[in-house]
Amino acid sequence: MKIGEAIHLYITVSRWEFLPAVFIGIFIGILIGANSVGSILAASSFPFLLEGIFIFILLFNVGFMVNCWADWKVDELYKTRLYQAVKKLGRRSLGVIIIIHILLAFVLAFHLSMVLQRIEISLLVWIGTFLGVGYSIEPIRFKKRGILHSIVALPIFFIPGVYSYFLVSSLSITDPYTIFFLLAATGITIGHYALILISQAEDQPDDKKMGLLTPAVKWGLYKTIRLSFLLNVIGSILTILALIGLFLLINIWLFILVPLVALGRYFSFKEVYALVKRSKSISSETFFLQELRQKMPEYPLWHAYGLSGITISSLCILLVKTFGLVRPVLKI
Questions:
Q1: How many domains, the chain?
Q2: How far is 320 from 36, CA to CA, in rounded Å?
């Protein structure tokens, strides 16, 4: 096998098409956690940040490679591109690659934990690996266990941002600033897992055939859509309140960003609310599924809307700290 083909197959089973979206979480964590732009780029810290990002990419790849390894027979029917990639690489070879990735990530995470004096980095790597592998592998296989399927939200949304925060922040986990950030990360996770429920609802017929017990399979389309809307609202409120807490610890003028964040969150769940209203007038799940699928080309935008105001706010927080404009109103 030529090197170029091997790299292409590796990228295919690692599903790098999803990497840019997940990197937004990494970006937000860095922006909020860093003391300044200079502290990010400093020669004493930037190499360790790159090492941390490399660890994240390793484990991102592991999650998808394990899924391809475990579901290769199912993918033969539904995702032939992934099946062919596993077949050409060899299932045993793919298993060896996965093990090497995990071992390397653990060693590097231990190194970072020692150098940066942050045990949280290793803890998050261990938890993320367990969840990423356990999502697809028996006997755990979260993807077949109903509500436990929601555990996928942690490695996708919560862990990346929190992990990158601890890569650059010197604050303790009990510091009020860190606590508000963790609350914001929790709100973002809840809100965007709500959107994942929409994607799962679209895949309900195929998931049912494959024996996957996702929320949409377990509860049906209507309950899943309503739950999605409720969780999005709860996540949005929690995120906004947590960001307000951060603004009070940095500079009250950042309050002007609250409407921007709220607007982004509104556009994130506006179409979900429209689906909830439509579900009350369509009695057949089959017809409702057709209408849902017509909206799915807009689905990536719902995530983008929800994160846009948060990302801009995170950048503004970093700039305020960089230019020495921190004027805390809330002093704890």
A1: 2
A2: 8
Secondary structure of residue 220 in the 3-state scheme = coil
- Radius of gyration (Cα) for the chain, nearest Å? 21
| Residues 144, 181 share a domain | no
What is the tens place of the pLDDT at every residue in 60-95? Answer: 999 888 888 887 776 666 677 887 888 888 889 989
The Cα–Cα gap between 307 and 24 comes to 8
DSSP string, 44-71: TTHHHHHHHHHHHHHHHHHHHHHHHHHT
Q: Are residues 71 and 208 in the same domain?
A: no
Amino acid found at 259: P
CA distance 69 to 135: 12
Q: Phi then psi for 277, rounded to 5 degrees?
A: -65, -40
Under DSSP, is residue 312 helix (H, G, I), strand (E, B) or coil? helix
Handedness of CA 235, 237, 239, 245 (dihedral sign): negative
Whether residue 199 sits in one domain with residue 142: no
Whether the CB-CB separation of 290 and 278 falls below 8 Å is answered with no
Q: What pTM did the predictor assign? A: 0.90
Query: What amino acid is encoded at 64 in this protein?
Result: F
How far are the Cα atoms of 61, 94, 192, 240, 325 from residue 156, in angstroms, in the given order? 12, 22, 9, 20, 33
Q: Which domain holds residue 187?
A: 172-332
**Is 125:159 a contact under the CB 8 Å cutoff?**
no
